[in-house]
Structure formats: structure tokens, C-alpha cells
Specification:
seven-stranded mixed β-sheet, binds 5'-O-[(S)-ethoxy(hydroxy)phosphoryl]adenosine, globular, about 650 residues, GMP Synthetase, Chain A, domain 3, 21 helices, Rossmann fold, alpha/beta, 3 domains
Length: about 650
């Protein structure tokens, strides 16, 4: 990351946390790290203490393994309910406080107090139960950023059912795939929703998914988002009607074991198929609440806005579970940042007096490109803390965010984590640590992250290597806790979790992320598996072979580039490109359509037949090409280069 998007910057100077912030910060203990080290793993009881337990846990970290070897059982013996923790327990103190503030795409707003939220979560839980949903059943939720989305998640949690939120922009095929894998027999969807002013037909996609499923659905519930009359088939129910039938009903929260699943979410792994990640009720909720409090500095009286989509892990952890567990007001925004105007985001912050704003570097780089005049027109003085997540933030964008948005008075927390970590794992503590623009910070207290070489040996400061987690953490997925994905690395080495990211550590222990080193591309904070995209592209008629790589992009960090070799004799005109795009749109969704498709008679391969991806990356990024002597077909390199350079 020497060359950040858009130019030179002051070298990695440190920035002290602003005094005005430190005074009121949730965490100001300078020796928290040492305390956690001394008390590990019992230190995590501090996270457990943020929750209400129906039955207290016996031990913070149980399981038959030790602190390195699975199985791990966080908060073993404890029982709790996530819906109770996010809703019911706040009723005594903050019944009338807004829990969810919704900003709709068409400019609508809607507020749910904790009392309103309690009522609707109960009614929907009663409705789901009447449709047959029981503890352990998987309920798929396929709706955009509307209040019914967090309500459905909390209603599932109340029943002990496992929610499976599928990003609303995914195609019918991608939905069917995720429902099929999860054997999910219940679906919540909507009639459609607006995207830049035009209505999309979500129900159609849901119906198509149902048709292609191998199993039957018990029930589909449909929210009317477009406000038109719903056309419902067999076993389909309107959301509003279902609530009306169960008006005033209450459902006792079902106590779950700490290690029971709360939800599952699909993400892109290194294989051709989506990877299911299951998060637990106790460990997940505890670490998410703990990090929302100590890193995002969320307080009950705050208005807090995380601009991610709930379809991804960031929205699960830091729009829904973290903020609501802490009893804060969480803002839910359905729209896009530049519609209807480029000042939309700042206008929402001013109008709602947002205290904490958490977004992605891609968004910050776009805001920067649009110019200062938009934030300058609004009063942003309510802001206390800014956060970023999803990709490395270049120092220039960091500075802009700090000065233009935070007015030099809001610390920035650059938070590193993954779908697999469930919660923030590496970041500064905003009231304690100095910030270093471009570097995320030290591993949080209680988290053992390290940068190691191929042999698993820790690397000296500044040397790039693999970011690994050396000890379990409360929000680890159920599979990792059971030892799936946690093991000796390299074979015969220490037991650990390998994150797939490349990073360096400096002399102060601050981690700087360099990007993915596995077959995952991170576009604007959204993950794609190169293998998955390649398999979809080769399903297109006329395509023989495909290699997908992440090319550099100033705004989104990376862009999907596809190198495609057509079947012999197949024309490569626009028709083929259009069919590839269409296939991706159908199989995954519009967000995965490649930025560029380069046709080449052959892909560069080693003598053993492996595609040389590094080489393709270098060509895409206009980098000097390394050694090509290992290639079986070096002549194709020149051809590809000329196509790319001319195109
Ligand atoms: C990347 C999103 C640099 C990283 C929460 C990680 C980051 C992947 C940062 C996970 C950050 C996340 N700086 N890179 N602050 N945060 N990443 O699963 O490559 O959608 O492995 O989870 O995003 O993406 P995921």
C-alpha cells in the first residue's frame, strides 16, 4: 500500500485520540491489553457480563480442547435468548426510546421505539410459530433494508430459529442455492423494492427460486414494500395480514444454549460454492456487544449509523445485534448515498444528529471524489466517532474522513474483521490508542493475531506475511470451534486459524492489511470467490476456460477482471461478452458482473497446467511482469498484454 489511490501523503504519522472524545469514552483503561492477557480466557467474562443470561454459564471457555486445540465451547452451560437481550430487557429503562430509525428509499422515515419493536417482534414470532417454525428451523430472509428485516431476525432469534439472510441483490439462482444448502423451508421476501427510482420484482425472483428448489417450502411470507396488492400463491402469506392475525400476541423468548446457532450466513470462500458460516448465540452476541461498546463507543443514548447492508456480516453485527444489545438507536438506511442528491448521507447525519458513523473506505473515496461542498452544507457536529471496515483505507482518504467529516475531533476506528470472526478483531481502542492512518491498529485485548511466514514463524516488523489468529475468540463460528478450519498450520505446526489476508506488523504491534492472498476478491468490501465466478463463466456457451482476478481500482479497492478463452472457432464479439455478463447476473447478481473481460486464445499456464494468476494480475494492474520462464505457453503473454493495453 505504498502507492495509495490518489497520491503522496505524510508518512504514517500518529494521531492522538482527540481530548474531547477521551473524556467521555467508554474505554479509557490504558492497560486493558495487559489485563486481558493476564486473565485470558476469563477476561472475556467482561463481554459475557454485557448480556442477560437466563442460566449463567459454568465456564468462559470450555470444551474438551485447551486454549489452542478445538473443540472450544464459549460460555458453556449458559442459556440466553438474543431477542430478549436486544429488545425485552431494555423495556424497563427505555420503552419510549427509538430502537430503529428507518430512512426509506423514497424519503419516507419511520421510528420504532423499543416498545414498538417488542410488539412487532412478538407478533411476527407468533406468526412464524403458527406457520410451523420451531427452534432450529432455518428461516431465509430475502428483503432489502426495511424494518421488517431486523424484526424478522429478532423474531427468529426469539423462537430459537436460525435466520439465513440473503442479500436482496442476489439472483433467484443464488437464493435457491443458499436455501437448498441450508434446507430452509421458510422464506420472508417482499413484492419488490425501489432501486434508483425503479421498482425491482423481488417476489418474482423468490418464486423462481422456489421452483428450482429440490425441497418444498412450508411457507413464504411477503412484505408489501411497493404498496400494491400482493399476489399470493399457495402457502404464501402477507406480512401485514399475518401480524394482524397475531395482533397483541406475545411469545416467550426460547432460552438457547450459548453454543446454539443464532444465524447462518453465506459468504465467498476459496471454493466454487458459497461458504456457510454459523454464528453462536452466546459467544457471538457477547463479543459483538463488547466491541460495539469498546471500539465503536456506542452508548444507549446514541443515534448510531452503520451504512452497511444487513445482507452482509457487518449489518448483522453492527446494525442489528451490537447496537440493539446495548440499547442504542440504530439507523437503517434503505437508499444509496448519492440518491436523490450527493449530500444525502450528510443530510441524514444532520437530520438525525448521528453520533457514530461506520462505513466503508469505498464509500469514503466516493464522497471524497464528489467534493467537500456536500458535507460542508450540513451540520455534522453531532458526530463523536467515525469507523471504517471492509478494505484497507488509504491514508489520503483517512485524512479526508478525519478532517472533512470529523472536523479533527472524532477518532477513526479502522476495524479489521471478517464474516468468520463475527466481530471486530483488530482495531485501535478509540479512547486509548494513537491512530496511524492506513494501519488498523493492534489486535484487540483478548485477540491473538499475528503475521507469520509460510512455516508459521512470526515475521519481524515490516515484513509481509499471512495474518493468522492464534487463539480462539468468543464470536468464532460454530464450525471453527469444532475444529473445521482450525488446525496445525503448516501441517505439523501450531494450531491456528488462517485468515486469508496478507499483512505487516510494525514495531508498535500495529497491523497493516495488504489484501487477500487466497482466491477471494474484495470489491467495495464485498467478497467474491474467483473459483465461483470462473465456474459460472465457463457455463456460458462458447467459453472454454476462464480465470478471474482482482484488478486494482481506485474507488472500490479491487475490480473483477475475467480472462476468457473461447471455444475453438467461437466468435468473441460483443455477443459473448453480453452472454457472460448475463450468466453472472443470473447466477450471482448484478454486483458480480466483471468490470472487464479479456478474450485470449489461451490462458497462461505453468508446465503442470496451473493458470498463472499472478501474471494476469500484473498485466491487469500494469505492473512489471515477473519471471515467465515457468510458462508452457509464454507466447500468449504478449498477446494478452497487447489486448489489455489497447483496450
Ligand atoms: C477485508 C467484512 C483492510 C479483509 C467485515 C477481510 C479489511 C475481508 C478490513 C472480510 C480493514 C475487512 N482493513 N481490510 N479494516 N476489514 N477487510 O467477510 O480482506 O465481508 O478478510 O467481512 O475484508 O470480508 P467480510
Amino acid at each position: 500500500m505504498d502507492e495509495d489511490a490518489g497520491g503522496r501523503l505524510p508518512d504514517r504519522e500518529t494521531v492522538a485520540p482527540p481530548e474531547s472524545f477521551v473524556e467521555g469514552a467508554n474505554v479509557t483503561d490504558a492497560d486493558l491489553q495487559e489485563q486481558f492477557d493476564r486473565e485470558w480466557p476469563d477476561c472475556w467474562a467482561r463481554a459475557g457480563a454485557l448480556l442477560d443470561w437466563e442460566r449463567p454459564y459454568r465456564t468462559v471457555l470450555g470444551g474438551e480442547g485447551d486454549d489452542r486445540e478445538p473443540p472450544f465451547g464459549w460460555f458453556e452451560g449458559g442459556r440466553l435468548n438474543a431477542s430478549h437481550n436486544c429488545v425485552d430487557r431494555h423495556l424497563d429503562e427505555r420503552k419510549n426510546q427509538v430502537a430503529i430509525k428507518w430512512e426509506g428509499r423514497l424519503g419516507e422515515t419511520q421510528s420504532y421505539t423499543y416498545l414498538d419493536l417488542h410488539r412487532e417482534v412478538n407478533e411476527f414470532a407468533a406468526g412464524l410459530r403458527a406457520l410451523g417454525v420451531e427452534a432450529g428451523d432455518v428461516v431465509t430472509v430475502y428483503v432489502p433494508m426495511i424494518p421488517e428485516l431486523p424484526i424478522a431476525m429478532l423474531a427468529c432469534a426469539r423462537l430459537g430459529a436460525v435466520h439465513n439472510v440473503v442479500f436482496a441483490g442476489f439472483s433467484a439462482e443464488a437464493l435457491a442455492d443458499r436455501m437448498g444448502r441450508a434446507e430452509s423451508r421458510y422464506l420472508l421476501t417482499c413484492d419488490g423494492y425501489y432501486r434508483r427510482g425503479a421498482a425491482t420484482n423481488q417476489k418474482n425472483r423468490a418464486d423462481n427460486a422456489r421452483i428450482s428448489l429440490d425441497h418444498d417450502l412450508e411457507a413464504t411470507v411477503v412484505v408489501s414494500r411497493l404498496g400494491e396488492e400482493l399476489r399470493l400463491g399457495e402457502d404464501q402469506y402477507g406480512y401485514a395480514g399475518l401480524l394482524a392475525t397475531h395482533s397483541g400476541a406475545t411469545v416467550d423468548p426460547v432460552a438457547r444454549a450459548a453454543t446454539d446457532p443464532l444465524f447462518l450466513i453465506y459468504t465467498s470462500g476459496t471454493t466454487g460454492t458459497p461458504k456457510a458460516v454459523t454464528h453462536t448465540t452466546g459467544g457471538y452476541l457477547a463479543q459483538v456487544a463488547w466491541t460495539a461498546r469498546s471500539v465503536l463507543d456506542v452508548e444507549p443514548g446514541d443515534t448510531y449509523w452503520c451504512s452497511a447492508d444487513i445482507g452482509w456480516i457487518t449489518g448483522h453485527s453492527y446494525i442489528v445485534y451490537g447496537p440493539l444489545a446495548l440499547g442504542t438507536t440504530t439507523l437503517l438506511y434503505e437508499g444509496t448515498p448519492d440518491h436523490p442528491e450527493k449530500e444525502r448521507v450528510w443530510e441524514i447525519i444532520e437530520r438525525n444528529a448521528v453520533n457514530v458513523f461506520y462505513t466503508a473506505p469505498t464509500a469514503i473515496r466516493s464522497f471524497m471524489g464528489w467534493g467537500e461542498e456536500y458535507p460542508d452544507r450540513q451540520d455534522l457536529s453531532s458526530l463523536r466517532l467515525l469507523g471504517t471496515v471492509g478494505e484497507p483505507i488509504n491514508p489520503r482518504a483517512w485524512e479526508w474522513y478525519y478532517e472533512q467529516i470529523g472536523g479533527g475531533e472524532c477518532p477513526i476506528v479502522d476495524t479489521w474483521w471478517q464474516t468468520e470472526t463475527g466481530a471486530i478483531a483488530v482495531s485501535t481502542l478509540p479512547g486509548v490508542d494513537e491512530m496511524k492512518p492506513g494501519s488498523v491498529g493492534r489486535p484487540l485485548p483478548g485477540i491473538a493475531a499475528d503475521v507469520v511466514d509460510a512455516d508459521g514463524e512470526p515475521l519481524p516488523p515490516g515484513e509481509p506475511g499471512r495474518l493468522v489468529l492464534e487463539r480462539p475468540w468468543p464470536a468464532m463460528p460454530a464450525s471453527l470451534a469444532d475444529g473445521d478450519g482450525w488446525g496445525p498450520d503448516p501441517p505439523g505446526g501450531e494450531w491456528r486459524y488462517v485468515t486469508g489476508d496478507e499483512a505487516t506488523v510494525d514495531g508498535d504491534g500495529y497491523v497493516t492489511l495488504l489484501g487477500r492472498i487466497d482466491d477471494v476478491i474484495n470489491v467495495a468490501g464485498q467478497r467474491f470467490s474467483t473459483m465461483e465466478l470462473e465456474s459460472r463463466i465457463v457455463e456460458t456457451e462458447g467459453v472454454a476456460e476462464a480465470a478471474v482476478i482482482g484488478g486494482d481500482d481506485d474507488t472500490t479497492g479491487a475490480a473483477v477482471y475475467a480472462y476468457v478463452s473461447p471455444e475453438r472457432g467461437h466468435p468473441t464479439g460483443d455477443g459473448l461478452r453480453a452472454r457472460i455478463d448475463e450468466r453472472i447476473r443470473e447466477a450471482v447478481g448484478p454486483m458480480a458482473v466483471p468490470e472487464a473481460v479479456v478474450f485470449t486464445p489461451e490462458l497462461p499456464k505453468t508446465r503442470s497446467g496451473k493458470i498463472m494468476r499472478r501474471l494476469l494480475e500484473d498485466i491487469a494492474n500494469d505492473e512489471p511482469l515477473g519471471d515467465t520462464s515457468a510458462l508452457r505457453n509464454p507466447e500468449v503473454v504478449g498477446e494478452i498484454e497487447s489486448v489489455v493495453r489497447e483496450g
